[in-house]
Amino acid sequence: MTKTLDRRDFLAGSAGALGLGPAARRLRLDRSGLRLVLLGTAGGPTPKANRAAPALVLLHRDSAYVVDCGNGVARQLRLAGVPLASIRHVFLTHHHSDHNADYGTLLLLAWASDLGRPVDTWGPPPLGRMTALFLQMSEADIAVRMADEGRPPLAPLIRPHEIVADGPVVRDGDLTVSCARVHHPLVENSYAFRFEVPGRSVVVSGDTNPCPALVALARGADVLVHEAMYLPAVERMLAGAPNPAALKAHLLNSHTPVEEAGRIAAEAGVKTLVLSHLVPAETPRVTDSEWLAGARQRFRGRVVVGKDLMEI
Predict the structure, then answer these.
(1) Best CA proximity match to 23, nearest among 75, 84, 86
(2) Could you tell me if residue 269 is left (phi over 0), alpha (psi between -120 and 50 degrees) or otherwise beta?
(3) Hey, what CATH class is 3-9+26-311 in?
(4) Which of 85, 155, 191, 286 is disulfide-compatible with 230, CB 3.0–4.6 A?
(5) Which of 68, 98, 207, 308 is catalytic?
(6) 167: phi > 0 → left, psi -120 to 50 → alpha, else beta; which?
(7) Does 98 participate in catalysis according to the annotation?
(8) Which residue in 192, 202, 284 sits closest to 238, CA to CA?
(9) Beta strand pairing status for 223-229 and 200-204?
(10) 111: phi > 0 → left, psi -120 to 50 → alpha, else beta; which?
(11) Mapping DSSP to helix (H, G, I), strand (E, B) and coil, where does residue 114 land?
């Protein structure tokens, strides 16, 4: 089931069928399955008016597993009704600012929201150094909150792990996570992740051009969340760019046209393709029909155009 959680639902005072509170939905943590909520679906580092920066969360048992930490991820989790204290693992696909800008901030805000158990974080080097530098930068704030609010030290609650190879990443009860290095030129270590519990599997592409390693990782998955570009609109977008030739070369070398995302989904034999990290995300506007038509040129399964706060 896929549903879009309209922002008006969050701000309305009713507690109707979605179980909404006065400010945000309280999202039930699933005791057995694996639920996916898209937190931000825009591509690119600049803030967008209509979509948040890249991030998503998977919910399993009493834990939240966050993938990527674009700007505003903590607020998006709040709007989705996911308690920050439920975060158990954080995964970064790679170190571009639209994917890691709020990595430290998310953990700091979760700590300020009564995070009481360690969080394991996973991503390419230099994740350990990034974590240490963020804690150093935030040292004054952390010290004041420990003294004024009686909070425990934050540093022992963050356990960074650097990923340097394909294969298994973590096993947490009956949930397993594995990864594969994908092609994102000029970024040496960029990873896709596969999350699996009995009966359901979700793969997140990260940023990549069309990549055989991703096809192998996604083989037979229930859901593939894949980045997508709509090239006719990209051409229109580039017309106003200060250096259109360089930007076009970067986009074509580093990202995936929506038609190719459909081909990858077909080759992998996935059931549902979710288009996210959309480029362009704002201007010029691409309609859902255009995204769907592009993906369906190569893929006959279910296609979903991702929206912020959509649950799949």
Answers:
(1) 75
(2) left
(3) alpha beta
(4) 286
(5) 98
(6) left
(7) yes
(8) 284
(9) parallel
(10) alpha
(11) coil
Domain boundaries, the chain: 3-9+26-311
* pLDDT per residue as tens, the chain (312 positions): 555 444 333 333 323 222 333 345 666 665 568 999 999 999 999 999 999 999 999 999 999 999 999 999 999 999 999 999 999 999 999 999 999 999 999 999 999 999 999 999 999 999 999 999 999 999 999 999 999 999 999 999 999 999 999 999 999 999 999 999 999 998 989 999 999 999 999 999 999 999 999 999 999 999 999 999 999 999 898 887 788 888 888 899 999 999 999 999 999 999 999 999 999 999 899 999 999 999 999 999 999 999 999 999
Beta partners for 195? 177, 202
CA–CA gap between residue 293 and residue 255 (Å, rounded)? 19
